[in-house]
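In the current project phase, we have settled on a layout for protein records. A sample record is reproduced below.
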Amino acid sequence: MKKLVIFDLDGTLLNTIADLGGSTNYALKKLGYPTYPISEYKFKVGNGINKLFERALPDGEKTEENVLRIRKEFIPHYDIHNADATYSYPGMQKLLHTLQEHEIKIAVASNKYQAATEKLVPHFFPEIHFTAIFGQRNGINTKPDPVIVNDILKQAGEVRESTLYIGDSGVDMQTAKNAGVTACGVTWGFRPRTEIESYHPQYIIDHPEEIMQIAGI
C-alpha cells in the first residue's frame, strides 16, 4: 500500500482552464495584445504562470518585461476570479475521502503560484486534510525539478518507495521520474494521452477510482 499520494492541481484535481484562460485574456486585452480561445490554454499552462504569459505573448513581444506586465494585471484578476468556472473532476471527491479513510497521506504539488494553490485546494476540498499544499514558491524551482516532491516527502515523513505521484502532463511525469517516485498519468486533464505515454510512467489511468487499486486499497 502507498502511504503518500501527491497530486498535481491544474488538470488533475481541478479543471481550472476557464479561469486561467479568462484571467490571461483579461491581462492580454488590457495591455493591447491578442487573446486566445480558452481551449488553446491547455497547451500553454503547466510550467508556472510566467511561462504561461511568455507563451501567450505574440512573437517579438516575449520579453521578461512584458511577462511581468502581464503578471501584474493577471494576479489581482485571478485572485478574485479563480473559482468562478473551476470545478473538481468527477470522482475526485470520493477518491480523496477514500484515501483519507484508509489513512493514506495526501499532498498537492503544483506549479500554480502558492497563494492561489493555498486558496483553491481547501475551497474545493474542505473536508480533506492535506499533509502539504505546495505551489510555486519564491526562490524554489518549478516542476519538473524534484524539489517540490522532496519537500513534501520531508514534511510527510515518508520515503520514495511508498509514494505515488499523479499528474496530467509530461511535466508531471518527468517530475515523478526525477524524484524517484511512482508515476501515474491521468487522461482527463489538459494534455493528450500521447504526451503522457511518451514519458513511460508506471501507470496511465482514465478514471480517478483506478487510483485506489494502484494505492493498494
Observations:
- The longest helix spans residues 64-81.
- The mean pLDDT is 97.
